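Sequence only, no structure available. Ideas?
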Amino acid sequence: MKKKQTDGRLRQYRLLDLFCCAGGAGTGFYEAGFEVVGVDIDPQPNYPFPFIQADALTLEADFLATFDAIHASPPCQSYSDLAKRNGNADAWPRLIDPIRDMLNATGLPWVIENVEGAPLRNPVVLCGTMFPGLRVLRHRLFEANFPIITPPHGKHPKVHTFDKRKSHYGKTNDMVDFVQVTGGGNCSIAAARDAMGINWMNKGELNEAIPPAYTRFIGAQLMEYLLKTETVRLRA
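Reply:
I predicted one. Tokens follow.
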């Protein structure tokens, strides 16, 4: 989607993808029409868009102001069920509150994504059952400072399993049925990629990623919000 510059030419809306990892979220926003730039404190050789290696919390306000919207996926390990079971949640950084403060200070529309149990405010939940073509059970929370309307949440099917103790062991196909791509995984890498709509990530990256369909869906609503906001501003 294009917007006019001050010289009358058209450009894409720009979105900053913080804590971008290998680009699952960024790809969805790109497919929704945004020009995407990723930032992560670690190298991300598989990130498919322009990338800056940096600490997100140290980015200058002038740099943030060059974008039209921001998405952030701060580290989720501290809020995960695994950390709670292991009793080591405090070993991981908790960055949601400082990131929210930083995003609010920009005055831009923004989205924060994280796992269930994270301290997001009035988040919406997205699941693979909501999107035709996805075959993954992966709940993710999204907090935003603009409205997000979600699809109906479908019933969870049984997922492919390697566990011989499960009653449906041997009765599913990981290239056809739903899978759950976590930890050691319950499917092949090829099946995980197919189930999530991601064809460029390795297993470790898939474990952390969200399907691009999630942010493509949110990105379409963000694009509509930006266009409406700009229309109101131009008419004022």
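The chain is about 30% helix and 15% strand.
Hope that gets you unstuck.
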